[in-house]
Amino acid sequence: MDRRRFLSSSALAALALSLPAPATPQNEAGAISIEKFGASPANSAAAHTRAINAAIAAVEDDAGLTTVYFPAKRYACGNIRVRRGRLVLSMEGCTLHGSGVRFSVDPEASDVRVLGGHWIETSGRRSTYLFTVNGERIEIIGTTFEKAPAAYGGYMGYVRAGTKDCLFDRFHFRGGNGIYIEGEGHQFTNFTIEAAPPPGGDDSFAIKAIAGVTSGIRIGPGRIKNYAAVISIGSEIGTLGKDDPRHSKVVRDVIVRNIVAEACSHVALIKPGAISAYDYRDGLVEDVLIENVTLSDPTGARFQRGIAVTAARGAQVRRVTSRNVRIRARAYKGTGIPTVGAMDCYIVDYPGGTAAFLSDIDLQASYSDPYDGKANAPATPGHPVQYIARAALQTPGKGQMQDITFDVEGNGCKEIGILIGEGLDGAVEVKRAVLTNISVDPSSTLGRGGIFFRSRVKLGDLYIQAVNGSRLAGPVH
Fold first, then answer.
1. What DSSP character marks residue 242?
2. I need a labelling partner for 8 at 20 to 30 A (CA). Which of 26, 94, 429, 475 fits?
3. Distances from the Cα of 383 to the Cα of 140, 227, 271, 298, 374, angstroms
4. What is the pairing mode between strands 239-240 and 280-281?
5. Gyration radius of the chain's alpha carbons
């Protein structure tokens, strides 16, 4: 896809479901209350589960009914299941709670709208989740999903492979991890996702492709706090344990826009094949736009890297673009991962793995250290990042990059402003770099300076203020 065509195609038409307007009074025509089937706040969770599922089945079976009405009360319950759909769950003011509470939509269901509602999972178990969505044209609007007590392990919810055209709007997550996403044509808008302070939650939006193609994903606007990556693409993309030269497992056409994030580890972590714990091979990621995203972590609670595009085991990543990404953060130490403030293109080499490939990666971002790169101290919490930007192969000659473009502003780093590693002759262009307070405490073994390159690189407009080192350094100029 041509980049200009891709960027101009980001405006979306709203999903339009042919569903009736929700009815709220339990005696209104077309609506039926869960209390008509025996739901009462005084009853047991098992009784409520049976009553609610019976009400849903009644609407699915009766062409004259359209809406299941939930009074604004609290009900203990378990798994609430939609089998065929064509209905509205009107839940404004209602709370469903309990150990094992869950909302499930079967693969055969379509045209389901959930309005309001507060779902609280109370077991405290890490492995619990609150929703699993299959089917087509599922809307969840104004709904809160919460783990109380908080428990961080599995995902808060799943949008499964084969699912199409789902809308999550004005939704809230609290006290658990993020959402697992496969399928096509999904939108996640006007959300707040908040975890408890560190260790906090895992990736807030984890986009996968195990079963086939995941495409047409739109995320934003929204707010995220105390998570790992704002968005991750991987780890499970590709074929598990065997090569797939066709690259049949694909994530494509993803737009992340208008996000405000606090205390997160990454803006974006695109990582097919690159996580050592998962042997997924030959995944493909293409056509990703990240735009108007800010991340703040001034004390280094979680921050590691800005936009990280990394691949291994034969994976390919192509046509990734970022614009107006702004990061103000200090680095968290303790993971052993090199810290890169703005942008990182990196290919991992696992023994026996096929070489990976990155192409047409066009990244624009700014990074600012609130303490100008000073070392960790009580008055300067967190740590300076090692680099502002990096492009490197873990093992020179194992992997390939082409058409990598950096446009970067950065203030404050420990080692090197921009590092270009070996084996990348002609692959990288530094279109623009405005770097200040760079190389404040460099290691003698890693080199130092504003831009340190071990491969031939194309340089554009540069302003570099390197504290300990030259503006340009390296064996190849």
1. S
2. 429
3. 40, 19, 24, 10, 8
4. antiparallel
5. 24
Q: Of the candidates 345, 363, 324, 321, which has an alpha carbon nearest to the alpha carbon of residue 10?
A: 321
Torsional sign, CA 59, 64, 67, 71: negative
Q: Cα separations (Å) of 466 from 384, 409, 417, 440, 456?
A: 15, 13, 8, 8, 21
Closest CA to 183 of 241, 225, 135: 135
Only one residue has tokens 């509470």, namely 101
The dihedral of CA 244, 245, 248, 253: what is its sign?
A: positive
Instruction: Tell me how far CA of residue 357 lies from CA of 286, 316, 317, 400, in angstroms.
Output: 12, 5, 6, 5
- Separation of alpha carbons 327 and 167, rounded Å: 29
Which secondary-structure segment (H or E) carries 26? none
Extract the tokens encoding 81: 């299941």
* H-assigned helices in 203-361: none
Residue 381, preceding bond cis, omega within 30 degrees? no
Q: The whole model's pTM is what?
A: 0.92
pLDDT at residue 199, as a whole number: 73
How is residue 279 written in tokens? 């042997």
49: helix, strand or coil: helix
Dihedral of CA 15/18/19/21: which sign?
A: positive
Amino acid at 24: T
Distance CA 98, CA 120 (A): 7
CA atoms of 287 and 256, how far apart (whole Å): 11
Q: Is 129 helix (H, G, I), strand (E, B) or coil?
A: coil
User: What does the block give as tokens for 448?
Assistant: 């130092």
- C-alpha span between 304 and 298 (Å, rounded): 12
Distance, CA of 438 to CA of 410 (rounded, Å): 8
Q: Which pLDDT tens digit goes with each residue over 308-334?
A: 999 999 999 999 999 999 999 999 986
Could you give the count of Cα atoms lying within 13 Å of 159 in the half-sphere of its Cβ?
A: 29
Cα(35)–Cα(55) distance, rounded to whole angstroms?
A: 9
Looking up tokens 């044509």, which residue turns up?
A: 185
The residue type of 452 is: F
Cα separation, 284 vs 229, whole angstroms: 19
pLDDT greater at residue 445 or residue 273: 273
Residue 14, number of CB atoms within 10 A of its CB = 8
Give the β-pairing of 179-181 and 157-159.
parallel
DSSP 411: E
Query: What is the CB-side half-sphere exposure of residue 14 using CA atoms within 13 A?
Result: 7
> CB neighbours (10 Å) of residue 8?
9
DSSP symbol at 35? G
Residue range 15-45, pLDDT digits in tens:
333 344 443 444 467 899 999 999 998 899 9
